[in-house]
Amino acid sequence: MPSTSQVPPWLQAFRYRPVLSVLIPVYNTEPDILKRCLNAVMRQAYKKWELCIADDASTRADVRLILEGYARRCDRIKVIFSEKNQGIAATINQAAAMASGDYLGVLDHDDELHPFLLLEYVMLLNQHPDADCVYCDEDKMDEQGNCCQPWFKSDWNPDLSLSFNYVMHFVMCRHSLFDSVGGVREAYEGSQDYDLLLRIAEKTDKIFHIPKILYHWRMGPQSIASGPEAKPGVFVSGVAALEDALRRRHVLGRVTDAPGAWKGVYRVRRKIAKVMSCSVILVSHGDEAAFARLLNSILTHVPRRNFEILICTHSSVHLERRAFSHLYKAGIIVRRIVSDGPRSLPKMFNDAASHSSGDVLFFLDDTMELISAESWTSLLEHVQREEVGAVGGKVFYENGLMEHAGVIFGPFGLLGYAHRAIPDGSGYAGLDQMIGNYSAVMGLGMMTRAPVFTDAGGFDEQLRNAYWDADYCLRLRERGYLMTYTPYAKFHHHIPVKAIHEMIVEPEAGYFRARWQHVIDADPYFNPNFSRSLEDFSQYSNP
Question: Domain residue spans in the chain?
Fold first, then answer.
């Protein structure tokens, strides 16, 4: 390694300059592609690296010649040759056994690193010396070497990590952590990286994301980058890895392929572990037909046990008792609440919540309609979790386009809904089809536990006309809770579509910005590579 006097001044500014070990499992790689892979490491701007290569008994003589040639050229390259083919998991562990670096990461033998990848990782490690795991954005590379299909990722997203291996490449983890979890496991061949990520996430939450494309995933005929049909066995081992993670985490549930999503997306179906009573809080604005539609959807899709209905109206609104008298006949506990003072949803919800007796609060008004038999149970699946503060579902406009699949902060300097105003299933990377975390969820159709709601002080009534739900979620985030979006709870919202910039409401917007500008500027679940002036993600190519 160069002496201190030879280290560039900008690098001397780094207090922490760790050795980074790049692991490459090799098997019968095309010579030109292998050289490009190795050269990408050699070209790294950060030079304090080592390259640990394990060849899995390649039958091509030129592979050995290439690897031996690179090892002679650079003493930071270590190579081992297996006598028999063992598979990628065992080969990665062989490469890791040679590593002496503080952090290590796996580079596939046909992929390439951006020249600044290691430098960017070291920059992050200097900013966050407690980081145990780091990953970056990536794209794909076609057989002509052209980069395409960028994959702009969320910051660490625990629920999305249970939907699919969204982290993918290039993961570097602390060497001691890799050893403590036992390295990669051969039983999960093909999804060994996913299995490793799940086990690492159980040991640490110090997982950091660099929102820059620093990894190029080559699309070859044998690579899953070209399509799931290339390696169907990967998805079988992915299910097995996820099922094992549920067992380790003592989560009662099962894993299935996510219906309607692309291959490789999973659904964790959690068992309702304990009986929870629910207070369904309904606000009526006086439209009896709309209220009847809402009630009918509840009676159709909600099991008639362990819940009460609280009907709240403003004192200026007249609602005939006959509009809900059939609920009494059905044996449902009904409470009627009349709200005085300023007429606003957050106040009416707060007033009704103060009279509730349920363990869980479920907020709706008469513009809403449940349209899925799974809505109730899929929300309960997540609201029962201690780490989750609020849960929201997928909401459709009356014309069938999506309104809500998670709240994102930043569009037009405020907030918006992910995948908004596009057909179901056409969201960026299919994320609208996956359970995941967002900074907030929509208040109509939201479930939250009553003690959490009380502890947070309910909804802020100063946000009379807008943003009260986002504000509530952000206050829960400050308390360490996750907000979870599930696509399996589905609603119709009977309002017309409006553009996001037409929905900005003052003075509430100014009040909200003053409180939450730091989140608006840097939402961890909204990749900064996306434009903040677009209505949705549909203008980006899906990876």
Answer: 18-268, 278-521
